[in-house]
Structures are given as C-alpha cells and as structure tokens.
Amino acid sequence: xxxxxxxxxQREIAARRRKGGQKKFSLLAPIVVRxxxxxxxxYGRSRWxxxxxxxxxxxxxxxxxxxxxxxxxxxxxxxxxxxxxTVRNKYWKTSVVQQQLDEENSSAEDRxxxxxxxxxxxxxxxxxxxxxPTAPQPWPKEEKDWWSFHERLVERVKESDASEPSKVxxxxxxxxxxxxxxxxxxxxxxxxxxxGNRPGKHRMWAADEHEQIRGVFSDKFGxxxxxxxxxxxxxxxxxxxxxxxxxxxxxxxxxxFPTSQLLHDKGQESEEDDFAKMPFQxxxxxxVFIVLMGTNNIGGGMLPEPTxxxxxxxxxxxxxxxxxxxxxxxxxxxxSELLPRRDDFRAVRMCPPRCKNATTLEPxxxxxxxxxxxxxxxxxxxxxxxxxxxxxxxxxxxxGMNGPEKPSGEExxxxxxxxxxxxxxxxxxxxxxxxxxxxxxxxxxxxxxxNARGYELWSRCLLKGLERVMGRAR
Length: 474
What we know:
The chain is an alpha/beta fold. Helix content is 44%, strand content 8%. It has helices at residues 2-20, 41-66, 74-79, 92-104, 108-119, 144-162, 185-188, 209-220, 226-230, 245-253, 272-276, 295-299, 304-325, 344-349, 368-388, 437-443, 452-470, and strands at 23-26, 30-33, 178-183, 236-239, 287-292, 332-336, 393-398, 424-426. Strand 1 and strand 2 (30-33) form a beta hairpin.
C-alpha cells in the first residue's frame, strides 16, 4: 500500500507540473521546457519538431541568399518603385552609377569601362526606332516634367513677343537680330537646368556649374554682351532635355515659336511672291534661329537615315513657320551638326532591340559611326534648304577640321555675293572634335553634355556662325 500511495502522489505531482508549473516559449515551433524532473515523451517530440523547423529555416535562408541566380540588382529593385511619372526618374539610375564612380575614384579611362559594366544592370532604354521622326507628337501625359517645362517655355515666348523691341542704336552701330535657341538638353543647358530643374549628379557638374554656364551665356549672348547690347530683343532659349525631332516639331506648332514683328518698315513691303524670289536682305533680318537637334534620335535607337529625315523636317518647319508669320521678312539659321558623344555605355544598352548583330545580339559599342553618317548627309540637306528658301541665310556648323570653304572667284577681303556667305563653318575643336579622351572629358564630363568650359568653347563656334550670317556687319 505504501508503494501504491507513493506512486499515486508522484503521478499527481507530475500532473500538477504539466498543468501549471511549465515555462513555454515559441521560436519556430512550440518547445516545452520542464523545470525539473525527467524529460517525458511529449517534450522529446517537441524538441525533435523544433530541430526540424530550425533546419528547414536554415536551408531556406541559404537558398534565398546564395541559391538565386536571378537576384535583382539595386538598380532594378529601386526602378520598380519609381512610379510618380516624372521624367527625371528615367535618369535616376545614372546618379547611382555616378555615386559608385565617385566611390571608386576612377580615372577617365576606367570611368568609361565602369559605366559600360554598370549599364548592364540598368533597366531598358526607351526605344524610339519605330516612331516616325517627321510626325509631330508630344511626350506622354505621364511625363509631367516635360509638359510642365514646355508650358513654361510657351510663356517665355509670349513674354518675349509682348515686349517692345529695342529702337536705339548704340554708338551709331546697326541693330542686330534677336537670337532664338532651339534644341534639346544641350540647348537647355545654357539655362543651367534639365527639365527646368538643376541637373542631378549624373551630369557630373561642379556644385556651381549651372551658375557658371549662365554666366558664359550672359557674357556671350545676354543683354550685356556685345551682341545683346545691339539686339532687337533679348535671346530666348527653347530647349527641353531628351527632345527628339518629332516632339520638337510638335513644340513648334504649340506655342514655342515667336510670332511678333520686330521691324515695321511699311515703305519697303513687297508682294509675297516677289519677296520669295529676292536675295537675302540683311537689313530686314529680325531673328537668327540657332538649332541643335537629333542626338536623342540616335540615342533612342533610331537609325541615321530616319534621323536625317527628321532633322530635315525640323529645319523646314522653322523656315516655313517664319515664312507663314512674316511673309516679307527674311530669316537666318545656324544649323548644327550632331556634337560628338562618347557615352558608349548607352550605345551598349540599346541592344536589344537595336543591335549591331541581331542574330548574336552583339551590341553597338559607340555612337560615333551613326553620328558621322548623319553629319555626312547634312550638307546636302542644308543645300536643299538654301535652294527652296533662297531669301534666307542658312549656315551649317560643322565639327570638321577642313577650315572655311571659300566660294570660287573670291579673294581675301572681297565678297562677290551675299549668298556666298551661306556656307559651312568648320569649327573643329570648338565643336568638341577632340581626340584626347581626358581633354574631351574636361569639356564634357559625362561625355554627352558640356560643362561651363565646354559651353565657353562651343560659344566660339556659334559666334563664328553669327559672323557669317551678318557678313561684314559686325
């Protein structure tokens, strides 16, 4: 009996401990820890389940960390969360690339290799190769930055048109025409902005670079410059980053073209048909259009031939609009070749779909062949404009190194005819035709957009073109 009573009490004690004297905690599976006594069968099973759960969890962590070969890069992960519809977010990844370049403190030679390597992890570029380069169309409504800045440029044109032209000649000098700058991000860069905002780190500008560039523009073309003091009106910069020929054509048709008459010489008005047959009349010139357009067509995967077609449409649209609004007034245009660009990592990123070899998916490694092909076609394009718009003066700005061409029969210091001045101005180095990579980078640090030193260099080419437009007037 004593033995049975002792056994009963032990069972009661064990039951009480299981009921109220336990300490529980949960990790991946419930584990029961006994405060005393021997482990029973239930506790053994719990410990086995916990061990199996931990093993499964460990294997899962290992698989996630090391076993997935399609793990997305930081660039790709962050790209999926950029959904606010602004244009700047299309270029945010370049800032990440630049940050990594800064950390690596790479040389100019290594920078290009690093950009090419990092571009493999960036999301696909916006392919435009199948778009008609001559059919005017704006950017999608989701591109809020583009639309906002377009509206601001329309307001600038309205303000310029509403202002009174200067009527005062300085020191007996003749007045000079208003300058209108048409283009893309390189043209907008004269304002020190991109989509109306200060550019990001991907532009590789110094902290005050935007202010320096504005200073260069003011010194060369602003109201206080030699040109600006004699100009009929202050210059107007109408450039939007990323612009291509087709959206630029739309911009021209939707408010980004000046329509105010600057000179009112009623005594010399001519019939429209008669005026079209007249030679260029410098004394009636009111505006000079400075045009740079087309590099974003190439950068978007468009082939050289349709890019040239789009550039032809741009030049003709400007001349047609001027003729429509001012039928008895000549115009002048400085039309620039495509500037050299060495952002080769973007050429690599075009493939697919735009590949050097579509079968092997071999990418292009440079934009240079396409740009050279476009530039070789432009002289014939411009010559066609000169024939169709004979009473306008059209100058082609070239990065060629051949020097200014001189009309046959012209001697030094002698000009036979005003039309002979409508030639190609060979700017060479002043249009960034620079073989040395480090020197090129010193003017275009991101290998696409000039910095302040680059804009100062380019301004020399533009001023040469303006001298050609004005002949001996300057």
